[in-house]
From TrEMBL:
Keyword Metal-binding in annotation: no
Signal peptide: none
Protein name, entry field: LacI family DNA-binding transcriptional regulator
Source organism (scientific name): Neobacillus driksii
Domain HTH lacI-type as annotated: residue spans: 2-56
Top-level taxon of the source organism: Bacteria
Keywords (A to Z) from UniProt: DNA-binding, Transcription, Transcription regulation
Xref: Pfam families: LacI (PF00356), Peripla_BP_3 (PF13377)
Length: 332
């Protein structure tokens, strides 16, 4: 069966671009739109039409609660959901740590389940939700009893990325992670913790001493990444590589280092994580860990349906394979 992933590969674009073309989104250039339409025609791709629930003839609603709209993830969720008779509702929250439960207006029998996308729910709140309705955590996760989640292996992916920096000859490698003050305390998402563990393990595996002065934490913003880069330079300690837990932070580092007169990657190599579009919008382009977001979304919806149907009842975390995309920020 031809999927949107096949169309994206054939057209040489992202899954998000294919999704935008299919949904008549104006945020696609004519050149890319033509490539996608040509690939669809050559592959004979036909979007699956929504089917009805076998039992009731009514569509169950799946609510995706998201702090970040990742188009490829949403496309994967929608494709599987629509193929199996579910209506997908997106609920965006600017805050990563608070939820207003926008699904409360739905009749209890109509709510099929929740997919939590990059939200830092309080563990007690998440547990209470999981006791009432099927919940799958997508892309990042909180540890609660009997939890269901679909992510990449953040620890091993980071170990791979930092080991690449070491292979290029870098030894004094900084780590820039995430720590969020939610007003009630300092919260670090599990994926950032796992990536920190991967960073530490890569250093240890290669006999490089750990230096806590090379570890910084901030928020998701570009300015936070730039501030972390400035702090690293102001310390006047040896620095020749940086691993950042998001591409946004990494791009901020590249620009800040370059403004200070450093050459990338000769003086300081920089690596990010996510392979977002911004990773190709800097000079040099950013080396980064590619997360297969479409597959993460698709498998999250597949797992949720299995819970809804009673096919699984024991918590699990599915790890999706990553890929390291090597570009000019680490290799000349």
């Amino acid at each position: 069966m031809v999927t949107v992933v096949d169309v994206a590969k054939k057209a040489g674009v992202s899954v998000a671009t294919v999704s935008r073309v299919l949904n008549s989104n104006y945020m696609v250039t004519k050149e890319k739109r033509d490539k996608v339409l040509k690939a669809i025609d050559e592959l004979g791709y036909v979007p699956k039409s929504t089917v009805r629930s076998e039992k009731t003839g009514d569509k169950k609603v799946i609510v995706v609660v998201a702090a970040a709209i990742i188009h490829e993830v949403i496309a994967g969720i929608q494709d599987f959901g629509e193929q199996h008779g579910y209506e997908i509702m997106i609920s965006y929250h600017a805050s990563q740590t608070k939820s207003s439960q926008p699904w409360s207006f739905l009749p209890k029998e109509q709510l099929g389940g929740l997919i939590i996308l990059n939200m830092l729910f309080d563990e007690q709140e998440l547990q209470e939700l999981s006791d009432k309705v099927p919940v799958v955590q997508c892309s990042q996760y909180a540890t609660i009893p009997n939890t269901y989640a679909v992510t990449v292996d953040d620890e091993n992916a980071t170990n791979h990325a930092v080991s690449h920096l070491i292979e290029t000859g870098k030894r004094n490698i900084a780590f820039i992670g995430l720590g969020i003050d939610d007003g009630e305390g300092f919260v670090s998402p599990n994926f950032s913790k796992d990536r920190y563990i991967g960073y530490r393990r890569a250093l240890e595996d290669n006999g490089i001493p750990y230096n806590p002065d090379l570890v910084k934490f901030g928020d998701y913003t570009y300015e936070s990444g730039a501030q972390s880069a400035r702090e690293l330079m102001e310390q006047e300690i040896p620095l020749d590589g940086v691993f950042c837990v998001t591409d946004n932070l990494a791009v901020a580092c590249i620009n800040t280092f370059k403004e200070a007169g450093y050459r990338i990657p000769e003086d300081i190599a920089v690596c990010g994580f996510d392979n977002q579009e911004i990773s190709e919008m800097t000079n040099p382009k950013l080396t980064t860990v590619d997360q297969p977001f479409y597959e993460i979304g698709y498998e999250s919806m597949r797992m949720l349906e299995s819970i809804i149907r009673g096919e699984i009842s024991t918590g699990r975390r599915i790890l999706i394979e990553h890929k390291l995309i090597k570009r000019g920020s680490t290799v000349s």
